[in-house]
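Long-time lurker. I teach an intro course on protein structure, and each term I like to show students one example going from raw sequence to a predicted 3D structure in token notation. This year I'd like something fresh instead of my usual example. Would anyone be willing to generate the tokens for the chain below so I can use it in lecture? Attribution to the forum is fine with me.
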Amino acid sequence: MPDRQPTPLGAPGGPASRISPRPKAASAGHTPSVVVKAVQGAEIPEQRAIHGPMPWGRRRVLLLNATFEPLTALPLRRAVVLIVCGKAEVVHGDPAGLLLHSSTATVVVPSVIRLSNYVRVPYRGRVPMTRAGLMHRDRYRCAYCGGRAETIDHVVPRSRGGPHTWQNCVACCAKCNHRKADKLLSELGWRLRVVPNAPRGPHWRLLAGVTEADPLWLPYLGEPAA
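-- Reply from a regular --
Happy to contribute to a lecture. Here you go:
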């Protein structure tokens, strides 16, 4: 029996043709791929679509209840699905005027959206302490010198029994953190600029999970816009 010759790469029936994906027809319930385009500019390449890597995959949109109460920060893809399905409306679009285009629709890139129908939210007590939430509480200012904060410091060091709580943690600049080390404030003659406390309010649970809040969110989070 003669030896079977391998099919050349790229020939019909060869490896390249077998593994090449075939475009799928849009089916019911399937959300079409969306490409981002600036109002004035050209299309951004397909790999920069909202479900691709960088930075669109990490972008968040503030979701408000029908009463304008802040609920959570959604991924951009999920926010667009709610808008397209008629379950939410855009309150504030992207300041740069970006649009999302599909073959059949154009949607404003949202920064803040609102649910069309009211959703009852169960009561949640204690706000979990996170680095992002603590930085927002202290407005990214060092609790000791008032400079730009980059780290978190335990007022009573952990090595001396200090707990990891809202009341014992403060935002701190790298210089003060290095100088303080494992010392007590009384040993250094330092004083806190503000007494640290656990934040209260439904929006703090949201801020605890968001590293940077869009300035358009601030009026809905109980803070004045910059």
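Some talking points for your students: The longest strand covers residues 70-75. DSSP finds six helices and nine strands in the chain.
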